[in-house]
Amino acid sequence: MIDMLILAEKASAAKHMAKAFGGTTGNVGGKTYKIVHAHGHLMEFKEPEKMVATEADKQRYSSWTDMQTMPWNQADFSWAKTYTKAYNAYTKKSKSTRADVAAIKAEAANAQAILIATDNDPSGEGDLLGWEIVNAIKWQKPVYRIRFADETPKSLNKAMQQMVEITDQFKQGEYLKSDARSKWDFLSMQLTRISTYAARQAGYRVKVINQGRLKSVIVLKIWQQQQLIDNYVKTPYFEAKFKDPAGHIFARKLKDDARKQAARFADETSGQADVAQYTKSPVTNIKREHKTQAPGALLDLAKLGSLLAQQGFNSKEVLATYQKMYEAEIVSYPRTEDRKITQEQYNELLPVVDTIATVVGVDPQLLTHRVLRSKHRASSAAHGANRPGIKVPKSMAELAKYGPSAQAIYKTLAANYLAILGEDYEFDRITAELQLYPDFKTGFNVPVKLNYRAIFDDTEQVATEVKSPSAVVGPDAAPFMYQGANPKPTRPSADWIGKFLEKHNIGTGATRLSVQAQLISGKNAFINEKRGFYTLTQPGTIAAVLVRNTWIGSPSITKQLFDHMDAVGKLNEAPAVVIDSATKVIAHDLPLILNNSQELAQFVGKQSAARTTKKYRPKPKAQGQYQDGPTVEFNSTWSGHKFSAEEIRSLLQGDVISFNATSKYGKTYTATGSLKQQTFKGKKFWGFKADFGK
DNA sequence: GCAAGGTC
């Protein structure tokens, strides 16, 4: 008989505990122990119709069409749980957790107590997961709890010294709050039945129209943004600005609408008349300020996914490959929410950073900053930000076996991490204004020392940063007419949705990504993904239109749920209040969804019609004789660059040319290439072809 | 056929 059975959440945690306590079995703090582990939730609620007692209720609760039964009466439910039937998307196998629970039960038979040992996640998910197992094996003896800040030996041993008894689960706030959360979410499945029914009633032959706290909010947000894009009308304006001989632009800061109104003109003639009021002016008040900037935040999986999307890897592939690399301990735990690391986690990786640098081709001499900056340090981070693992691959080539994106994952992850070992980026901030019109100012940065940016460049936009700018400002600047336009709404993307969910605290690091992956995959996908950019499919559009103006489609519903959960966690509110709030949401949204279905024809129809009748807009062409041979015609712009007359001449001679191009993500880069005959969808055409190397 | 939360 051992003193305690230590129950870990997953295999990797059990392994780290074995390392910290001196084996899978042994003695820690004067108590004998054995470590076992689950893999996530081993139990989940039974189907609704299997949680009710009477035959009549079984009938009602299995219906997808009886709107009179909803909202469900939670008093009818036993809230009984059953073994999780987890479908693994990578192995494509469905497996019950029955055997896992039985194995834990067998081990528990030899123990005096069970110790639930998970990280200190305040949502209480670890408590729920532990209690599900403890209840499933009908355990009647004492239950203890430890919570740890991270899985390093030091933190695990520290946690062990702060063990508490929690045998009465109904007095444990963390358990009560996550139990309430799970019931709230379970009840929200009614909205899927309601939406599926509503769409079919409106004549759409849909499979299932899924709705939930995450799904509905994501899909509605994309739809609303698509509406903004579809209804966007480009409105050009004309505004007086100045330019000095080196090309620095001097403009007014137009903070509010009134100022914009006064300075911008809708027509060119008025704009020109405005510009004519100004004369050339000397440049004055030139200031040069030396500044530094520390490396940016570390990555989480959502951010890593969006970076790799730009390289053409889809989120599903990245998730699968990352998982394999995690199992090989080459990278850290995937499903973290952390963007920081603990001092312990930093110390653990320090001995191998030079080796990692060598493997990914970063100069180890750049890694001189050996103190963890406070902006990257957390006192508690269960797994820490996504980063390289302690096991370092011998070469990049070795990684290929994990998947197509493995090398890109490792390179990005390693460079991002190593950047925090680089010194701050140094630059000069240069500002100046016009002597005659001091409202017109310029400001730009000139790089002095790249430092960490030579390891990992985290600049998203090339805002006022000039790659090789002239630091010489003035001596004077001349007025010119600047033509601008109201900005086009952002295209929905994985990154954009990720930021939105994070801002509203909707979902966790793990679910934000897995829900998006669900919405993107399968025959009934709601989202089309292309290089990280999102558009809605027809069922996706239906799902979105149905939840317009509903509570489930609103980000604030999660906030309300979490506020209630916090009160439950502090034992200030009865869990029943949380569950009642779910019923209120159903009661509120049911008539709205049925009503919204009358608008489906308008939006779903209209949108597909607009797509098919979209006019083809011809692109500006250049033409000429190619190398004394055929007369060819080709697009006169390429990746944001308009070929000059001279470049067109060079291209027609067959020369290789280089120019500054802008990617669709706004990055500028040097493109090199020549005019070539190419094939697209079986059609031959002439056009510039960049030489991107291999 | 349903949620979100874990996990692989």
UniProtKB/TrEMBL annotation:
Residues 171-590 form the Topo IA-type catalytic domain. Residues 3-152 form the Toprim domain. It comes from the Bacteria. GO terms for molecular function: isomerase activity. Residues 611-631 are annotated as: Disordered. InterPro entries: Topo_IA, Topo_IA_cen, Topo_IA_cen_sub1, Topo_IA_cen_sub2, Topo_IA_cen_sub3, Topo_IA_core_domain, Topo_IA_DNA-bd_dom, TOPRIM_dom. Keywords: DNA-binding, Isomerase, Topoisomerase. This is DNA topoisomerase. It comes from Loigolactobacillus zhaoyuanensis.
